[in-house]
Amino acid sequence: MSVYVVGHKSPDTDSVTAAIAYAELMKAKGEDYIPCMQGEPNPETALVLERFGVATPELLTDATDKKIALVDHSDLNQAPDNLAKGEVVAIIDHHKVGDVTTNSPIFFCAMPVGCTGTVLKGIYDQEGVALDPKVAGLMLAAILSDTVNFKSPTCTDADKKVVAELKEIAGVDDTDALFMDMLKAKSAVAGVPAMDLLHRDYKDFDMNGKKVGVGQLELAALDQVADMRDDLYKAVQEQKAGGRHTVLLMLTDVVKEGTDLVVVSDDPALIEGAFGAKLDGNSMWIDGMMSRKKQVVPILQKAFGC
Length: 306
Ligand code: MG
Ligand code: MG
Ligand code: MG
Prior knowledge:
There is one protein chain. The protein is an alpha/beta fold. The protein has 2 domains: about 5-185, inorganic pyrophosphatase (n-terminal core) (Alpha-Beta Complex), CATH 3.90.1640.10; about 195-305, Diaminopimelate Epimerase, Chain A, domain 1 (Roll). About 40% of the residues lie in helices and about 20% in strands. Strands 3-2-1-4-5-6 form a 6-stranded parallel sheet. A 5-stranded mixed sheet has the order 7-8-9-10-11, sandwiched between helices. Helix 1 links the parallel strand 1 (about 5) and strand 2. Helix 1 (about 15-30) packs parallel to helix 3 (about 115-125). One magnesium ion binds near residues 12, 146 and 201. One magnesium ion (MG) binds near residues 72, 94, 115, 116 and 146.
């Protein structure tokens, strides 16, 4: 029976490339693993797949009667639908441990590093499986993406070491140039509906029984979205209206290294208090905020009493 390897909803480059890399590893060991993703690749991921000449994985949104390996998440909210009607056989991740549980022992490998690609490189090494140069390129791109070219506080020495190794295998000389190409693709906003931008990199969390959504748009400069601030705010409002307590949109300026945080909440004062900032209109600038995982989710969990 095939095992389907899948990353989180609103797939990012790490979610898609980790599914490919883990499926390749298991195939090399003679197992039948199929890489999947829960939605269309975002523009950055599409560029990366094309750059390294790797086929786009198939779509999978429902786990019913399937064997599943989860990568880059272990939260039910972010997993395929009906996960309980399938069987999770592996989890490989670099986030907080989520609420997915299993009835049988599984392969579980999580490390506090910047990217699932870094965790996977360790598993390849441990298993003694040689990395395909194309797959090494994908994992390299994922690490640059997740660590924002090493600027994110989530970046560790392990990520930097793995990038140095993957560069050699993939034959990539200039990782800064690769990152800038990826940033251009991921921050392209012209002609894209605001709701699609909110969902380009979006996650829902259960915070003490309240549903909280956080989207992030990484930009080379904030003024890229100057003309569409109203539309983005409306999209955040619309998303919140779907039964959520709070929806945040991080407009992250990768060059200035900070985030303008758009807030729609049943309790805006709670969000202001959590981040120690005041809303100016419907957003607040937070210097140094780059990472949803490290600088937003833990702070929200504390504020929501998780
Ligand atoms: Mg991810
Ligand atoms: Mg990741
Ligand atoms: Mg990310």
